[in-house]
Amino acid sequence: MREFLKIALNLFVISVVSAALLGVIFTHTEETRKRNEQARLESSMGRYLPADAQGVRFAAIHRYLLEQGGRQDIGYVLPVRGGNALLVLDPEGNVVSKAPVSGPVDDEAERDAAVKRTMPGFQARYADSYILALDSGGHRLASFIQGRTAGFKTWVKLLVALGPDNAVLGLEILEHEEDPGLGAEIEQEYFRNQFAGRTLDELNALGVVKLPLPGDYQRCLERSKWAARGITPQAGAEACAKYVHEDIHAITGATISSRRVTEGVKRLVQAFVKRMDIVAAAAAKAGLEPVFAPEGR
Amino acid sequence: MEGQQYTVLERLANGLVRENPIFKLALSMCPAVAMTNNVRNGFLLGLAVLFVQVASNVTVSIFRRFIHERIRIPAYIIIIATWVSVSDMGLAAYAPGFYKEIALYVKLIVVFAIIISRLEVFASRHTVWPSFWDGMGMGLGFMFALMFVGVFREFLGSGSLWGIEILPFKPFFFWSLPPAGFFAIGLLMALFLWLERRYNAWRGRK
Amino acid sequence: MRRLLWPLLAFLLLTAQASAAGRILDGEVSGEHELTLNLGLALPVDWQWQGRIGVVERENPDIPLTVQAARLERDGRVLVLTVAEPLSAQSAYDLTLRASDQDPVEKFTVRKGFLAVLFSIVIGAALIQNFVFSRYLGLCIFFGASGRKETAVGMGFSFILVMTLSAVFVWAVYNFVLRPLHLQFLQVLTFVGIIAVFVQFLDTVLRKVNPFLFKKLGVYLVLITTNCIILAVPLILVNNAYDLWESLALALGSGAGFALALFLMACVRERLELADIPEVFRGLPIAFVVAGLFALAFLGFSGMSF
Known about the structure:
The structure holds three protein chains of three kinds. Chain A is α+β, with helices and mostly antiparallel strands. Chain A contains eight helices and ten strands. Chain A has two domains: 1-46; 57-283, no CATH class. In chain A, 39% of the residues lie in helices and 27% in strands. The longest helix of chain A is centred in the first third of the chain and has 45 residues, at 2-46. Chain C is α+β, with helices and mostly antiparallel strands. In chain C, the strands form two sheets. A four-stranded antiparallel beta sheet of chain C has the order 1-2-6-5. A four-stranded antiparallel beta sheet of chain C has the order 4-3-7-8, with no helix packed on it. In chain C, helix 5 runs antiparallel to helix 6. The radius of gyration of chain C is 25 Å and the shape is elongated. Classes of the chains: A alpha+beta, B mainly alpha, C alpha+beta.
């Protein structure tokens, strides 16, 4: 029995020391991780802003699905003057309720908790986020849609960058589980950059064709390799201008992934445009003062 | 065994060639198949394994007299799991871009047979300095094997190395597909064995 | 395949759905742009669908989908809707339907049945994302235990046992201990600990209860602790936030898939021993090449979904 106790104590001490060491390291690295993640997101978004932009602020709108009983409402966590507010709308766009949101909203876990606190009795589920890059007057320089769409395998998480007139500036793939060499090619520039430069109307009519990518189109799409290949920005832009009105060329061997990502981008952008109008109008009606100016031009 | 002299070079050579974890001992091959589609992933995972191996080796060597015999396996597991969690958190915080690709495999390092076998076979019976170099040797051998396969697969499959484009086309795309990892290891293992046999025959003839 | 699954799915959906009291019994996504609904109360043949039917994705209740056509079949008992936007069997859709302008609006949610979800997880883990041939995990044990059919069967069986039991325990510990206390960073430590304890426990119990079985499985039980899959399954179920039943389904599927992989490999390797193989390839190298061929074959399952 003595022996057993000694062994058990030995093991216990080892476990506790390990757990304590991990706890220390965790608290140390968690802060850094969050900061780095935020910095990376902002730098990848910063690439789509005009080079001379000054005093740019990022404002995020987070969309939640609120369920109670049988009814489903949509809650938007909006940045307003003085903090954040939760604006609850019904599916038709009418204001159901509004409430201030206390606590940090940048981290997903903390935000979920804050929303649950603000709306007790409701089942709140996070849907997606819209990040707006605002100039000093609150006007949109660029908008970023963080959402997901079904891929060939499970989900593909995307970031779509839109300009002030809702034309597509670029597409980034954040997460996916596609096959390497096939569906995973959606990460490559020669696929993603085909979306850049499309206006909203063009995007709505966009289709996917199973045609191979012309060589010069591919070269001008791979913007990061322009310098290595000796292509000037002007020459690259000119070469791509020829093809900018074509449908999306599907990736060889990954037609379904290409189609689903294209459809996903279309629907995310359409939903964004529609929702921003509704939210801006509803926020005004509810008496909230969001930090972003309504697109009333 | 405690008194035997191990030199740094001997331990390194042992890990790299004579008892190479992947090609000779055939342990912990899961990442060798899945994560060698390019050199960078192989290098990063090899680095993580190197860190865990060395840290665990040193820890066990320092505390070898305090770990009771009956619970040594659970104790080793706890120590390895701690170091794996440390490297997991470290990578997530300081190299998130790379971390995303190897995330699952970093956590799985804790079940790599190579690490626990080194603790049992070597670190629990030797002092700190040889244990450190044994860990280095094994870790470097692992990294070398992973990168060797990675170079083979990335160059033939995508015409690039470490993401840098070397050929403007993809010579033999098959090697970049996931199942090719099995073929690559099988063929390269056979090559390794053949080379070793020729070398031993050459030395024997001398 | 669809024809065979349809009656099964209909039954499952029937039993699993808490449908609103109304005429819609069940429904499913029957094509990329098609929704099929089974009605308990038939609709008249000349029923006008415009303005009387609404479809939204559960995730986007404020974006109505465009119904392009509605077709009644089987004397008005089956309603087939054609929608402009692509539909996915993985998503849930909320429907509103009214038979006429005087009737009340009926609501219904079309989603995958509970059992169908579990079934797809099992098949997914066993075939489509087979842990050995598609995810490339558990290889050390795989190559070690696939030399003979008996060892393969023994290993596979003990693996399924340990996997299912520890999956339940891991799920419970994670959701009732780690998550509420915000100790997620201890997950690797705890999972490995739980698995080691379980293996030890099983070792002791089996030794006393069924010595014969213990002798047959003996050494494999201990080897399971250093198996990549045994840790990967808890990590996956935590990552995907599975509930208890889904975790069990994943454990069962992965165990079955692993056992299948082991058995297939053992069959081939037993034959290979009698074949004339170059010396440097004998043993492991040729086994790897064979595994590669299997992996290529399993690539054919990729992307399948139920």
